[in-house]
Amino acid sequence: MDTNVVERVEDMEEMVDLLSGSLPAAKDQPTGKEDQLPDTEYDAIILGTGLVESIVSAALSRIGKAVLHLDRNMFYGAECSTIPVTESSPLGPFQNMWRRFNLDRSPKLLYARGAMVDLLVQSKVSRYLEFRGVGRTLSYIDGKMVEVPCSAADVFNTTLLKLTEKNVIKRFLTFCLNHDQHTADYQDFASRPFKEYLSVWPVGKKPQLSPFLQRLVLHCIAMCSEQVSTEDGLKATQYYLRSIGRYGNTPFLWPMYGSGELPQAFCRMSAVFGGIFVLNRSLKSVVVTKSEEERCSGAVCNLGQKLKCKWIVMNKEYSPSSWQVRSEAQASSHGTDSHTDRNSVSRLVLITDRSLSPSSSDGVEDPFLLTIPPSEEMKTQHVAHLLELPSSTGACPSGCYIVQMTSLGSTAEEDFSAIVKTFFNSKRPVSTTPPPSSPPVSTEASSSASEGTEDTAARSDATPAEAAAEGTAAPCTAATPEDDTAISSDKPELDNDCADPGNTDVSGTPAASESSAEQEDTRPVIYERFYFNQSNPVCTPVTASGVHIKNIFVTTPTNAELGYSSLVKEAREVFDTICPGEEFLPPAPEPEDICFDRPGDDGDKAKESTDAGSSEQRADDNDHQESTEAGQCDEQETECKQPSGSSSAEKSSSAGGAEASTEGNSSCSDMPVSTDATGTSD
Length: 682
Known about the structure:
Helix content is 29%, strand content 17%. It has 682 residues and is an alpha+beta fold. The chain folds into 4 domains: 3-86 and 259-338 and 536-578, FAD/NAD(P)-binding domain, CATH 3.50.50.60; 109-149 and 344-425, Guanine Nucleotide Dissociation Inhibitor, domain 2 (2-Layer Sandwich), CATH 3.30.519.10; 151-243, Orthogonal Bundle (Guanine Nucleotide Dissociation Inhibitor, domain 1), CATH 1.10.405; 426-522, no CATH class. Strands 1, 2, 3, 11, 12, 13, 14 and 22 form an 8-stranded mixed sheet that branches. It has a 7-stranded mixed sheet with strand order 9-8-17-18-19-16-20, sandwiched between helices. A 3-stranded antiparallel sheet has the order 6-10-7. The longest helix has 40 residues, at 601-640.
C-alpha cells in the first residue's frame, strides 16, 4: 500500500481496522495490474456472500448501482454455504464418492407462500434454482414419532387424534387462518405467551385444546418457542397454514443441492446486471471522514488499493471484535432480543446408512422434517429441528442420507447427545456392499472369496485415515469400547470389510447367535458426524472514539429460525435505507431482451445505418445482375436447342455475350455458370 496515500488519509480521516474478525483474512498477494480493481467510486462495497449480502447486491445492481462484492473465501455463501466432506472422512462404501456429498452450514426451509419464495418468483431469480417438496412433517411427542396432519383431509384421516379433537383442531386452525379479522378475541393476550392463550382458548368459554393439541400447535404448526407472544404465534400459525397446498401437501420446499444455492443465485443476478465479484479478496480497513456526522468515504483492500464508496454492507464475520455487542444491557439498548443474542445456534450434520422414518410409498424419497420439542427425556431446553435429506435432493449418493439438526444452545455435542442416542446407532454397519456406481473395494483375500469365503481386508486396529491411505476399508467398530455386538444385516451375504473381527469365526463368517434376531438394531447407523456452533452477536459499527458510523451495515448472521422471513426483511430494510423510494428487486427481463448501453452508441448506430444502406444497395445491384444473367442463360439455352447447322457467327456472338457477362460479374460468387452447345463449362 502506498504510504504517502495513507499519511494523507490519516491527516484528515480515521482508519478503522477490520482484520480482527473471527475468520482469517484473505491472503495478501503481490499487486499487479491484473489484481487491481476498477478505480471508480462504488455505490456500495459488500463484504461476504451470505444470503442477506447477496440479496442486497442483486437489488442494487438491478437498478443500475455500481456494486463491488468481495469475499475472503474461495467459495460463495459464507455461513450459508454448502460444502463437501473431506476426502479423509470415514464414509464406508461411499469413500470414493466423497465429492458427491453436500453439507449445509445453515440449513433452512422455504415456506411455499413465504417471503423468500415470493421474492424468488417476483425477481425471477427462481430460474437459477431447482426445488423439491418436503414430503412429510413429523413430531416426537410422548416418546413416539407421529406424522403431523397438514391438510383438512389429513386431520380427518389421522389416527393420532380422537374425533372430538379433530373437530376442535379444525375450528382452531380456521380461527388462526383469519385471526386478523377477529382481533377482539385475543387482544387481551396479544403480548402474553402464546402457550398461555392456547390453554384458555376460546377465551371466556370452557378451554377446548387438550395439552396434546397445545403442544402440537405450538411446536409442530406454529414452529415457535414457549416464550413467543400470542400475536406472533397466531401469525406463525397463519404463515404455516397459507403455505399448505401451493406446491405439495406440506408447506415446505428444499432447494436442490443445498441451501447454499440461494446466495449463489442472487450473486448471479447481481453479476448479470453489472456487479463485480472478487473472491479471496477483503478489506483491510475503512476510511471514515471526520465531520459532524461520521461517514465512511472509502476502504483499503487487503492488497493495499484504496477504494471509494458511498455505502458498505458487511457480514458480521468481517467486523472487528470491538463492534460486537454481547451483554444483555447493550442488546436491549440496541432494541434487540437479548435471549437470542446471548445464545449461539447449535448444529449437527450426520451421514447415515438408512432413513430414520422410511416412506411407505415406492416412489422417489422426499425429505422430511422432524420437530423435537424440549423435554427432560431429550435433555433439551429449546425446540430442535431434524431434517433428513435423501439422495433425491442431490445432497448425497444413493444409499445414504444426510441428517441436519438445528437448535438454540451453547454446545452442540451436549445439546444433541440424547437425541443421537435415541434415534441413531453409533456403530458402523456390517453389510457395506458398495453401490453400483462406485469402484469395487480391494481386499487381500480375493482368492478365498472365489471359494465362497472372505477374509477381513483391513487391520482391526487401523484408523479410517490409515485405511484410506492403504486403499482398504476401515473396520467398523462400536462407538464405545464396552459395546462390541455386531449389527445383523438384512442381506444373506455379508461383506466383512467393515465387520467386527471380534464377532467372527476363523472363516470370516459371523458367529451364529440364538438371540441375533432379538438384538437386531434397525436404527440408522452413523458414518460420520459434525458438531459445530454458530455465534450470534449484535454488531454496531463505531469508530475508535465510539461514534456510530452512519453508512456501514453489519448484517445479522444466520439464526435458528426455520425459514428465511427475517433475513429477507433485513435485506429489504438495508436496500430501502440506501435507495429510498426505489423498487426492491423488480422482475428481471428475459435474457434475450437485455441490452446494455455503450459509449458512442449514436455514432455506431449512424455507422450501422450507413453500412446497412450500402448493403441494401449492393443487394439490389446483385439482384439486377442475377436477373440479367438469367435472361442471358435463357437465350443460350434457346441457342443450344437450334439445329447443328446454325451459323458459327451466331455461336461466337452467343459465346462472346456469355463471356462478357461473366467478366462483368466476376465478383459475384453465386453467379450461374453458362454452358456452350456441347454442355461443357466455359
